[in-house]
Description:
Layout: H1 2-13, H2 18-33, H3 42-64, H4 68-84, H5 86-96, H6 99-115, H7 123-139, H8 150-165, H9 176-193, H10 202-215, H11 219-223, E1 225-229, H12 232-240, H13 242-245, E2 250-251, E3 269-274, E4 284-291, E5 301-308, H14 312-319
Parallel strand pairs: 1-2, 1-3
Antiparallel strand pairs: 3-5, 4-5
Amino acid sequence: MLLLAGLVVGIAAETKFQVALLCAGVVIGLVMCGPRQIFGRPLLWVGAVVAALLAVPTLIWQAAHGWPQWAMSEVVVAEMEVLYGGRLGASLQMLLWAGVLGTLLMAYGLWCLLRAEELRPYRFVAVAFLVVLMVFVLTGSRPYYLAGFHGALVAAGTVGFQLRREGGVGRWGAAVWPGLALGVVLTALVLSVSVPISNSDVGERIAASTAGAYGDLSAGEQRRTVLFGKSYILAAYLDGYSEHFDLPPAHSPNRAYGYFPLPDESSTDVLFTGTDPSDLEPYFTDVREVRGPVGDDIDARVWLLTGRTTGWNEIWQEIRTLDVA
């Protein structure tokens, strides 16, 4: 399991470096609470080496591209006020994303890990959780960054209830029952007023609009036209429905898409999906709207830009961004 853990950590590091924070929290928890004998297990260190080796390629890539993941952390902080109501709102959501009952069970699980002697061997999990939570709160991270930890505390809470039922944890956990009862009532109320998400088909609608504009082009025009999403979200919609609508791969200068391969130099025209093509407009001789808004609730239009006047590499250096447009 220690070797497999190293493998998982290494693969996770190729996506996001936050897994290193989790590892640091676990190490701190083990040092503080034990079982410290785990540090004498050879496979722990073999797993650590495996994780480090798997992380090397992405570290090299990040260094070669100016550490975009580090720059992304600044974007996350800047967006926190708009998306989550500031640091306080984001901090509360880190816990409340588990739902009312889930949050209560997490709190009970944390209490069990810190107080129940039967769960003493797993107390390091509680310390790791508190370390990761504290760092995420202080650095202004997104609420879902902590969601992977919810299951561990819920499991601890569940075991705590079983131990209490068997008489192993005394009376100190009795106060949680009224809280869980209240949680059931609140959850029922939330579910009773929930409404269906009206824009669940938004991606398909946007892709269909783009596909209609692409289909209006002649075969020759299609060969020299590249699909372009103003944001990575729009580009992902187009890619996600590419087989359904028979669309070529989409491009975007936004976030990870901005680091994907550039459009081919033979692509002189762009079919742009978004709200405003002003970033691209200076590099083309003609810009015209070919599709209006997808609906009253979605202001995603389609423009055709023709006559590219400079190379894609030069354009990309000017328009690539981590901010969602």
